[in-house]
What we know:
Elements: H1 31-38, E1 43-47, E2 53-54, E3 69-73, E4 77-86, H2 94-97, E5 100-107, E6 112-117, E7 130-139, E8 142-149
Amino acid sequence: xxxxxxxxxxxxxxxxxxxxxxxxxxxxxxxxxxxxxxxxxxxxxxxxxxxxxxxxxxxxxxxxxxxxxxxxxxxxxxxxxxxxxxxxxxxxxxxxxxxxxxxxxxxxxxxxxxxxxxxxxxxxxxxxxxxxxxxxxxxxxxxxxxxxxxxxxxxxx
Length: 157
């Protein structure tokens, strides 16, 4: 008895030329945050009950669970809490940016924010260094906050 020929293995679909993993996915709640970022403004949330700020945007206060929270514009000042230099990332378009500095910063208002530090030599990075927000434009009207050493030139990539 002869074995039947194996069925041909279908070719893997080619990745979409426009596949991107850096674009935010705004929803009805975060639309205000992303619209402000597109205008070069960084927003955080502040609780009307306990007065504490927080980030990432959510509809309730993570400290006291109140739903009395509002948007406010952050100063854009921050200090570097920690960082890691990413040398390889296979998700488009991050691989084209490597090496890059993934970081966590402490905003002057208090919350911590995951971000990227740009235009700063890696050997100049120091915990506690002063940073200022700037924005990387990913598509028309779509920007994300990134940070650079305080006193650096304004950026809108």
